[in-house]
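User: I'm curious whether this sequence folds into something compact or stays loose and floppy. Could you predict its structure so I can see for myself?
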Amino acid sequence: MILIVGGTGALGSAVARRLLAQERAVRIMTRTPQKAGELQELGAEVVQGDLRDKASLARACQDVSVVIAAAHSVMGNGSDASKYVDDRGHKWLIDAAKAAGVERFVYTSALVADPDSSVPFFHIKYEIEQYLRHNGLEFVILRPTAFMESHAYMLIGQPILENGKVTLFGPGENPRNFVAADDVARFVLIALDDPRTTGRVIAVGGPDNRSNMQVVALYEDIVARKVKVSHVPLGMLRLMSPLLRPFQPGLSQVMQVGILNETTDQTFDMSETLQQYPMTLTRLE
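Assistant: Here's the prediction. I'll summarize afterward.
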């Protein structure tokens, strides 16, 4: 049995569909089982569970050989804040997997996971990587770039398609890498089945790098009209992020990510990874 934590999200559901198409036993752990109806119809077992509920993690890990961790709470506030879900919750999940005798743990980190990151979410990702390394479980760590479904479509394309306008953090001119969730899902399956991946950290990105304004231009071609673009200055983000952190840690983190995206190198070259694991990647178009 393969347990997918976060199985109704973009990555988790893509992994589930691929595994179910191979007729493999899949268990979806989700806080809201009604969201997993389609996957249940495809043959997945669905269980209610929460990374903030240690007992539910122990139940979800019973009779499981592999755990795939694909949940996050980068925008969470209050009890959903990243420190409870991405940090403590994932440590509880790793401990529950080990106690249940799980054979392999696949953790979805981030390309920019860094102990010195200015963004707490990326610091937490690195800390969980280290926790997993020292727990004794057989593991694989995947470090994807920005999911195009969230960063290119939800944050940029969807407002354009619905309202003809969009707001960007910063000037939007710094190139960054976008990856399709389904391409990351293909690497999750490699991590399950290829013994060469054991104990490895695998960086996963898309085939090209685009700035946010280039994404806007792509959607302008789709809607065949000029889009109204508003920009939140980086100085405003630097001012507001620490002020919001005590009350809105999720929004504060998103602002910090926006600063990072515009002021550091966010490009990625998949050539080395593709030499080891050849495949055709999904382009942003």
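Summary: The two ends are 36 Å apart (CA to CA). The chain has a mean pLDDT of 94.
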